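Bench notes, afternoon.
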Amino acid sequence: MRLKILFPALILFACCSYSYAQQDSSIDGHPAWIMQGNIYEVNVRQYTPEGTFKAFEKHLPRLKQMGVQTLWFMPITPISKIDRKGVLGSYYAVANYTAINPEFGTMDDWKTLVKQAHALGFKVITDWVPNHTGADNYWLALHPDFYKKDSTGKIISAYDWTDTRKLDYSNIELQDSMINAMKFWIINSDIDGFRCDVAGEVPDAFWQKCIPRLKAMKHIFMLAEGNKPSLPADGFDATYPWDEFHVMVDIAAGRKNALSLDSVRNITERNFPANALLMYFTSNHDENSWNKADYGTMPGASHAPFAVLTQTLPRSVPLIYSGQEEPFSDSLSFFYKDTIIFKKFARQGFYSRLLHVRANHKALAANAAFTKLHTNDDENIYAFVRQNGADKILVITNLGNKPVACKVKDALINGEAANVFTLKKEKISNADTIKLEAWGYRVYFY
């Protein structure tokens, strides 16, 4: 199916718009609002020509209409100047954990943005960098014992990130200082959680101490950049499905077929707790800047079926990166100003359909049941049913660059269902043949 601008569908969905009003309730240990929710990653610097909080505010009504629920802001803290990379530096070289990057505005600007987002029904999480600081963070002068040192006593960088300095979590005072810095943002701007950078490199024992203290203040959502099975046990609600993402990239490139997605998903099912959530994506800031996602890794029409999977697979909390709804088919610089150009919003209708159907159907909740369906061409077709009580969703995707005639070998699909993208009702039967174009997809709700 070709991507089309589908704004008329928003009117149809509006009559049954989903409420994210569950504030403190919990499902499987997670905030209830995330189970049918989604995440939109905001790159403030590159989002508008101004690159400020105030300029981004203008996009809030559009994103709300699109169906976005949770806004993840890349780090909003000041950037170190010593050993800075490029003109503007990396967001991930933090100079001060409890201040605002003046490039974006003021603390009052940030608080106003969060209040406006909350008033529209959004949740807000911020990017947190616990593994390292920038090269002139004030802790270096006040607390040099907070940092890792080499055999000569020199403070070291994290990996080859020469604009950073590695923190030492054997220091109890550092642990408490980091927790207090995270509390600062909950207390002072009422955020709803954190995305934690390279979380797997920070000791598990720290997270086991930190996360319960934060969640005692507010039932926040915690997202870990990492795919260690220990992270959910540490208290994180969701992790990165890096292995699944890389398999999708390989399928899009023709290096693997649809069966390999089952192989990697089966490993995750064996290794991760049953209630662990996964933030599925086709792009994010790292993959876009360094690896040309998604316009290079899933070019053209090949993006669509994988985007459908991110929204519909079990455990999923789907991510959309800044500009994917355009789509902005270029990499965004890490260390320089490189503005996204919004003109056509050609994918916005496509994403809106998926986001709204997810919000309105319990069958697409992260913990809803999943049944893989066998077809006449499992090397190319990835099909499944999601179910929660009487609510049922059928997903059929062609993960290949040639048209296929699909026959699903399961009576579970039989019945009358509405096509999510056409809103037309169709009779579905396992005796029927469903024709899918190259990289085609169908999503039905019963």
